[in-house]
Write a structure and sequence with these properties.
This protein has about 270 residues and is mainly alpha-helical. The protein folds into two domains: about 60 residues; about 190 residues, f41 fragment of flagellin, N-terminal domain. It is about 70% helix and about 5% strand. The chain is built from seven helices and four strands, in the order H-H-H-E-E-E-E-H-H-H-H. The strands form two sheets. It has a two-stranded antiparallel sheet with strand order 1-2. A hairpin with a 2-residue loop joins strand 1 and strand 2. Helix 1 packs antiparallel against helix 6. The longest helix has about 55 residues. The two termini are about 20 Å apart.
Length: about 270
Amino acid sequence: MISINTNSASSMAAYNLASTNANLQRSLQKLSSGSRINSSFDDAGGLAVSMKLSASIRRTEATQANVNNALSFLQTQDGVLKNAEKVLTRMSELAQLSTDVTKSTDDRALYQTEYNALTSSLDAMLTEEFNGVGLFVAGSDTLAVITSEDGGQSIDITQGDLDGIVNGDIATIDLSTATGATQADIDDLTTALQDLATLRATNGSEQSRMTFAADMLAINKVNLESANSRIADVDIAAESANLARLNILQQAGTAMLAQANMSQQSILRLLA
């Protein structure tokens, strides 16, 4: 049937061309943004999963920053303990020197002066902080560091009891006496060095655990990013091929719409 009022072929061609143009615009948007999902229309379910993965990635990055700060705390603490070791070693050396029977009272008085200065240096270390948080606490304490983005895992780091070493028996040792330090004094210094070694060993084990936790977070982040990429990122090769197909369809649709519109002109020949 040939009619004037209705051109079904033209309407269908226009519909197909409009659909092709819409798909072409979405393809261009994907390629220009690099994202497969630019609106919920593109993939509603995929968008929901991608949003959760993106949030997990951000939390993982924040957790990484916290763990790295905790690691810096431990490294700073170990630096102070290392200096404390040097001070204690010198103090034990002075104690041993003071037992020399050839030393005069004046000599031992000088040893005592240096010993007192070193004790003050140790005492000053007790107030050392990292970003306002004390590195050491009398009696010792722990800080819980969250090591997973869901908050389900944590590692305790120690605020060591350096005060127990500094203000213990070694604080009252007197090297200025006629015989200098006693064997008990030297034993006290040896014990203090052993206690300090324990603090450093604890610090080292906590640094090791924190490093492993940081490595695990880095691996988890890579895996989360890969999973999110498979959902949200566009396949450039596949989408480029789709763009070429849509360009051809657009050109063909435009040509067919023109042909459908021209077909109505045949009616004029019937009426002439």
